[in-house]
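Progress report, Aim 2. The chain analyzed during this reporting quarter is listed below.
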Amino acid sequence: MLDLDRLVVAVEADADCVEADIGVAECAAVLGDPGGGELADLQLLAAVDAEDGALGAEGGVGAAGLDLDEDEGAAVAGDDVELAEAGAGVALDDLPAGCAESSRDQVLGGAPDSLPLFGHPAANIGPPRRDSGGGAGFVRKDFRFRPIVRTTRRIWLSSLVSVLATTQTFTLDGIVARPVRVEVDVHRGLPAFAVVGLPDTAVREARERVRAAMVNCGFEFPLRRIVANLAPASLRKAGPGMDLAIAAALMIASEQLDLGSLPKLALVGELALDGTVRPVPGVLAIAEAARERGTKAIVVPAENGPEAALAGEIDVIGVESLAQLAALAAGDWVPERPEPLPLGLGAAAGTPDLGDLRGQRHLRHALEVAAAGGHSLLMVGPPGAGKSLAASRLPSILPPLAPGEALEVARIASACGRLGDGAVGGRPFRAPHHTVSPAGLVGGGNPPSPGEATLAHRGVLFLDELCEFRRDTLEALRAPLEAGWVSIARAGARSRLPCRFMLVGAANPCPCGRGEADPECNCAPLAVRRYQARLSGALADRIDLLTAIRQPAAEDLAGPPGESSAAVRERVTGARERQEDRLGPGRSNAEMTPGEVRDCALDEPAASLLADAYSRRRLSGRAHDRVLRLARTVADLAGSEAIGREQMAQALQLRRRDEQ
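Predicted structure tokens for the chain:
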């Protein structure tokens, strides 16, 4: 292969254009067989002016100027460029289409006999250099050509007018999908690829993934100035899920893809360097958002197809590679609609059974009441008394999810990338370590992302060793416990995440775990108060059931198993059905508003008992309402329409922290 080191271009007085685009010159540097050193097929650098003939004639202008834009000026910095003092300006980008329609073997003129072979001293192409005083301006330019190691198609592109193409995609904002319009503009200029519109690092890196995927799938990557705009520009774009939409828009702009037969189409997916379409998180939320916007079909990675099919009422097209997208547009490939991902409503197979909890009658009753009304529960007792075992059995006695609730749980799991390929279902059970941060527990970050409280939506959030958690972490649960939502505000971003969960906590009575009543406890009173103060009174007041437990007796541990989860779940499901008839679908007693609590029917003895306890135990207004909610749940378990004295006494007993 011949090495051309220098090029001299003389500009005629009335020349319309000069083909001096460096990117085009580099692409035209493949001359004959690479490394062959042959000159036979070399025809290099010829541009013909439409009216005045070939450029580079002896007659030059009296003075010539070179007009470079900002990017081209930086690119040619340091090159040997000489200009006359005054004269007509020549813009490198303003070229008519005819000036660059040469093929690879016919570019800007023939090679002179003085062109040296590879490795010889460099030669000049063009007219002889004149002295500056000769009156004819000239431009002298050094070009250094690089061999192209691999191409998939002929890479010489004719001059294109500016082309704009658009596609539709989505980005995740928390667990909600926001629409994004991808606009790709391809125009003449130095080869560059810019992505604008407030992208994060993963989105900006799409330039390299798209470039490699197109080339490795046999498409041409335009060596032009490319700008990809992600609108609206005020919305932060995160994640690699927009790779497929950017690649499709670029292929449309370069006339390699026509999606005209597929109107109202959205595209989501990450591209591998070989063109494979990889799965991305949040496809279920994206498919639902596309359906709400009237989109007819959505193209997703094949692995995400079953997940997207859960949205319903929208055509789901699963693709495995970028090449399949071109086959789909051409009508050469008709995909099959994927089957929706199965979602189980009840507890998953292998869930631990409540029968493993032997003895502890009071604790078993507290678990049943908490499950029936969706109440929060705090268990205080020595190590080994069965607190963690009881909490892990709680999901087995909860009622099955409604279809709408199962879809909510699946949507959150999808946004966090936790929705697998197998059967998914049942109420979630989350048990974070006590070293978790406030952002990890309730959500946070920039952009905001869900935390453990949101992942436990419609399920159980278990905090073992509650008093070992940081106080600021526990205090972050105050508002979510009351509202069922967590609002995260950041500079330029705000998210509202659902977190309607059952909080279950387990704590020791003192640092040693035995409790002050145990003669073997050697904890100082100050150490005990400091340990218990990690759970603030404000948070403890928001917990419905406060239960103290003891070590089980030896005969209980050696006895038969307790009542099974199936029997307890049947009673719990019946109580939940009564609550939904009274409050509405999907609602439980723990979600009653203050007005609904005041409307609870209770007889006179029950009202007197509550009033007496309120004055003697100095209950807060919030605790007063929580006792009423508990009493209403106990009445629902008993099948009673009104709250009686017995149900009220049980509710008051379930809020006592002294040992039972």
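Residues 252 and 258 are 6 Å apart (CA to CA). The two ends are 92 Å apart (CA to CA). These observations will guide the mutagenesis work planned for the next reporting period.
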